[in-house]
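Ops channel
N.P.: pipeline sanity check, posting one input/output pair.
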């Protein structure tokens, strides 16, 4: 607790951050990705800055390939926030810059993952979030 703000250590950012409802989801989701799906924490970054239409934005979590290109973008919402079309629109705008293969949105209760196909200019929702592999 610092300045009456409850904080939690974020192992990906290697620092303490305010424990907001969204941060609670982020911490549990990134731990689940590393512990259960094999995503390497060393290739994950939280609060990744990007510029979109001359506006500074931040992606909640990006998982990079070993060559540095984005493989997965994750957008978090608080558990009380519904996953709506506007949430997908938000992550799709971020992906216009990053061009990731997978887009994931989660409020800690519901998770959705879609795979992009840039050759066909389509996407498909997946029944589950894929396990980590070097081919992502």
């Amino acid at each position: 607790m610092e300045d009456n703000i409850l904080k939690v250590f974020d192992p990906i950012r290697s620092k303490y951050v305010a424990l907001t409802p969204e941060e609670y989801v982020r911490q549990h989701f990134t731990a689940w990705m590393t512990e259960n799906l094999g995503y390497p924490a060393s290739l994950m970054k939280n609060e990744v800055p990007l510029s979109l239409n001359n506006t500074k934005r931040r992606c909640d979590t990006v998982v990079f390939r070993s060559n540095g290109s984005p493989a997965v973008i994750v957008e978090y919402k608080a558990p009380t926030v519904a996953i709506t079309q506007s949430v997908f629109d938000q992550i799709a705008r971020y992906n216009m810059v990053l061009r990731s293969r997978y887009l994931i949105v989660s409020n800690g209760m519901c998770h959705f993952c879609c795979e992009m196909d840039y050759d066909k200019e389509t996407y498909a929702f997946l029944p589950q979030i894929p396990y980590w592999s070097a081919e992502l």
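N.P.: looks fine end to end. Helices lie at 21-36, 85-98.
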